Amino acid sequence: MLFLYNIIIQLVALVLKSIAFFSSKMKLFINGRKDVFSTLQTKIQPTDNVIWFHAASLGEYEQGLPVMEAIKEQFPKHKIVLTFFSPSGFEVRKNNTIADVTVYLPLDTKNNATQFLKLIHPEMAFFIKYEFWPNYLNELKIRNIQTYLISGIFREKQAFFKWYGGFYRNALQSFDHFFVQNDSSKKLIQSIGFTNVTVSGDTRFDRVTTILERDNSLDFIEYFKFLDSARNNKATTIVIGSSWPKDEELLVNYINQAPDTVKFIIAPHNIKEEQILNLKSQIQKKTILFSEKEAILKQHSDSAQCDKLENYQVFIINTIGILTKIYSYADIAYVGGGFGNPGVHNILEPATFGVPIIIGPNYAHFAEATALVHQGGCTSIQNANELKLAFDSLLYNSDERLEKGHICETFVQMNKGATTKIMNYILTKNQQ
What we know:
Blueprint: H1 2-19, H2 24-31, H3 36-43, E1 50-55, H4 58-74, E2 79-84, H5 87-93, E3 101-104, H6 110-120, E4 124-128, H7 134-142, E5 146-152, H8 166-171, E6 177-180, H9 183-191, E7 197-199, H10 203-209, H11 219-224, E8 236-243, H12 245-257, E9 262-268, H13 273-282, E10 287-289, H14 290-297, H15 302-309, E11 314-316, H16 323-327, E12 332-335, H17 348-352, E13 357-359, H18 367-375, E14 378-380, H19 384-395, H20 398-414, H21 418-429
Parallel strand pairs: 1-2, 1-4, 2-3, 4-5, 5-6, 6-7, 8-9, 8-12, 9-11, 10-11, 12-13, 13-14
Helix pairs in contact: 4-5, 4-10, 4-21, 6-7
């Protein structure tokens, strides 16, 4: 089976190279891997002590960050090598400050796995949430390297739990320990003979709670929220985060009909100019883009520009990196992605600020969304009518808004601590 798998990987590599001619994202995927080995050879010396973290994409990076920070604190003399599989993760976080070296993970061939691990020679390896690459895992096992899965999620539909999944089950034997998010994942992995498993929870809760400890202020958002030049009153503000066109189809209609005492901040998932301008053209209220604000700032003082922001009712954020801070100004949050596949984006960031949340119908694969819908802090809608009812209920009933926000905040606080559980195990293991 491994022989067949390696043939498939080689064929996939050829196909991806062909696709790269027509896809800018795939071009990054291919070209980004060309210099991985030379980069590692330059930045990792044979005498270095190394710990390896692998994240599929940006979400997994955020999930693993609390553990990376704890590892860096406890093992300060070690270098951290961070790998990404996807361009959407690497391109955004390639200049992170937590890792000493950040590169793409070469495709999972036998030769790549051997060369990669020979160059970085890690003492420990951490895979975040998922991505189980058989050649890398086999090579880790051969080299007797401590290997861990953190914030793991297992589902019945995965190949591990099918009659034909023996090849993939064998790859799991490389893990010294599985730190999983919930009891159902623990029961599934135990059902195929693995007892080295701990329900540690989701490290993302640890990640988002640290947000509260930093400065989340944004002066321009503060000014935008004012209803008048005297700044006596602030608007009830709805923050729409990581929206997709299917979300925006429903949202634009509501925005256009909303009273002027309500303001909207929209941070779309895709910030390509064509899509942003199309979104703006559909909104009938006075709307400003983040990039327009920046352009005016070059001609006027900051205070002059801020004075003008209160005259707008909709603020479209066509940049990345500030959505988390913007959530701190929300009275209500709509988190996008719930009308697509695989589903809703990160709801924990608004939840940690105690903000009630509205999402689309596709959230079943996200434990935190499922739990918050069940507890009442998050509302799932399926159409424009349900969207209006959900927004109006929160806008015109401040008690309900506060109660749902409190449910969200409490939920986050009650579920933190996964990093501590993981680190207690790691430190005990490495003291033996």
